[in-house]
Amino acid sequence: MARTPNPDRGDRPGRGERGERGDRAPRGQRGEAQSPREREESDLVDKLVHINRVAKVVKGGRRFAFAALVVVGDAKGRVGYGSGKAREVPEAIRKATDQAKRNMIRVALREGRTLHHDARGHFGAGRVVLRAAPAGTGIIAGGPMRAVFETMGVQDVVAKCIGTSNPHNMIKATFDALVNVASPRAVAAKRGKKVGEIVGRRDGASVAVAAKE
Question: pLDDT by residue (tens digit) across 27-73?
Fold first, then answer.
């Protein structure tokens, strides 16, 4: 006859009385605190821009693979892009997403919704023109550029691509323009002036907002 465990004597339940190992809650449901990096990655938004099937000719025939282009952003001004190639589509997307997270840049946004000024960029045969827009305009851009603005958190912008429809060139040209976007505060600090002297054509409320950005 099995002896009943007595907590007063320090007895512990037998191995069969502890329950199955699978009864434990998953890591995210056990109340464990997430690290800052895990919280940051959970806030990221990724979009698949383009996927292409490529072939490599070998002695035995052709080997097919998939090349993916992904854009990742936090909807607060940070955005990045990456490309990956693998034999399977999910693996190619995972590689592209990891590369995009490593290559993220921060872009200064005016009032958190649009660019501070117009910008131009180019890569290869691609030429892009980005223009700041008033509230309510929306994202007027096509294809790959729209994915960049949506993941970055831009709400009002007008963009035009000239010269190519290649998604890779369009993305790289767009990033070439975004890296040159500077806030009035950064320009004022570089020139040794006040924000009001840089942003002279805006009203007082706009100057105050630009000083905080």
Answer: 555 556 666 666 666 788 999 999 999 999 999 899 999 999 999 99
CATH class belonging to 45-181: alpha beta
Cα distance from N-terminal residue to C-terminal residue, the chain: 75
Amino acid residing at 142: G
Residues near 92 by Cβ (< 8 Å), separated by ≥ 6? 51, 65, 66, 67, 68, 84, 85, 86
Q: Which two tokens stand for residue 81?
A: 């892009």
Distance CA 132, CA 113 (A): 9
Task: Spell out where the chain has E strands.
Answer: 45-58, 61-73, 78-86, 105-106, 109-110, 114-115, 119-123, 126-132, 139-140, 157-162
Question: Residue 121 — very low, low, confident or very high, per pLDDT cuts 50/70/90?
Answer: very high
**pTM as predicted:** 0.71
d(CA 133, CA 173): 20
Buried b (16+ CB within 10 A) or exposed e, 62-89: eeebbbbbbbbbbbebbbbbbbbebeee
How far apart (Å, rounded) are the C-alpha atoms in residues 96 and 83? Answer: 4
